[in-house]
Design a protein that fits this description.
The complex is a heterodimer of chains A (166) and B (75).
Chain A: H1 3-7, E1 12-17, H2 22-37, E2 41-46, H3 66-74, H4 92-103, H5 109-118, E3 122-125, H6 127-133, H7 150-157, E4 162-165
Parallel strand pairs in A: 1-2, 1-4, 2-3
Helix pairs in contact in A: 2-5
Chain B: E1 3-9, H1 16-26, E2 33-38, H2 43-54, E3 57-64, E4 67-73
Parallel strand pairs in B: 1-2
Antiparallel strand pairs in B: 2-4, 3-4
Helix pairs in contact in B: 1-2
Classes of the chains: A alpha/beta (166), B alpha+beta (75).
């Protein structure tokens, strides 16, 4: 990059990752990594169902009451267990989609996540969702930003040339 | 043209050719040229778009069979 390009502030993109579905995680990771490769300053804010992929694959979210236990049971954490929003067919759809992707050399979302981290994409977990679900910081993937709230995300979106809700 | 680095993105799907190009660009000195080879049809427009977005110069592009080649000079 030229010194001129480095001197001026880079363009910004903010994605609100609201869904934990595999079919939504893919475009989130593709757009996030590519924007960073294009020199943009990228932040992804993971909230509600979008937070589940950030929890380590081996962690079992247990919840703290009947409702959160049910939520945790229906939403196993980690990228690997992310379901398709349609035609998941008890995991068959997810398996087929991943198989087709691998056959065509499309990177799985968890690998694009790691590449995005290498490219400097800020990964912000939503603090409210963490508290709601009883998820502790040590149960989440390494290299995330400080858990933040809606106002922090909005402050960044107001400065971003591109803001997406996926 | 002196090629300082070659990026083999053949067989890789979107967005990998661009991500590999961006990574390689970080390892180049200003003025050096890298060659990117890709077979993903999306690279035809994605690599030039990346170059213009990042201010690097697309010196030359060509196609031979399925393989797209891009020469990019780092700014």
């Amino acid at each position: 990059m030229s010194e001129d390009a480095q001197a001026k502030d880079p363009e910004m993109m903010t994605i609100i990752a609201f869904s934990g579905d595999l079919d939504k995680l893919w475009p989130t990771m593709i757009l996030g990594s590519t924007a960073a490769a294009n020199g943009m300053d990228v932040t992804i804010f993971y909230t509600f169902w979008g937070l589940f992929p950030l929890v380590k694959d081996e962690v079992r979210i247990t919840g703290y009451d009947a409702m959160t236990k049910m939520l945790a049971m229906k939403n196993p954490p980690g990228f690997q267990k992310a379901k398709l929003s349609k035609m998941n067919m008890g995991g068959m759809g997810r398996w087929m989609m991943r198989k087709v992707a691998a056959k065509n050399n499309l990177m799985p979302p968890e690998e694009l996540f790691e590449i995005s981290q290498d490219l400097g994409v800020n990964m912000w977990p939503c603090l409210m969702t963490m508290e709601l679900l009883g998820i502790k910081p040590e149960q989440m993937r390494p290299g995330l930003g400080e858990p933040a709230g809606a106002a922090t995300a909005l402050a960044r979106m107001s400065k971003s040339q591109i803001s997406l809700f996926i | 043209m002196d090629v300082a680095k070659t990026v083999d993105a053949k067989g890789q799907k979107c967005p990998m050719p661009v991500l590999m190009t961006a990574k390689a660009a970080k390892e180049l000195q200003p003025g050096q040229v890298m060659l990117i080879e890709a077979t993903d049809g999306g690279a035809r427009s994605d690599i030039p778009a990346w170059a213009s977005q990042t201010g690097n110069e697309l010196v030359e592009s060509s196609q031979e069979g399925d393989v797209l080649r891009f020469y990019i000079r780092k700014k």
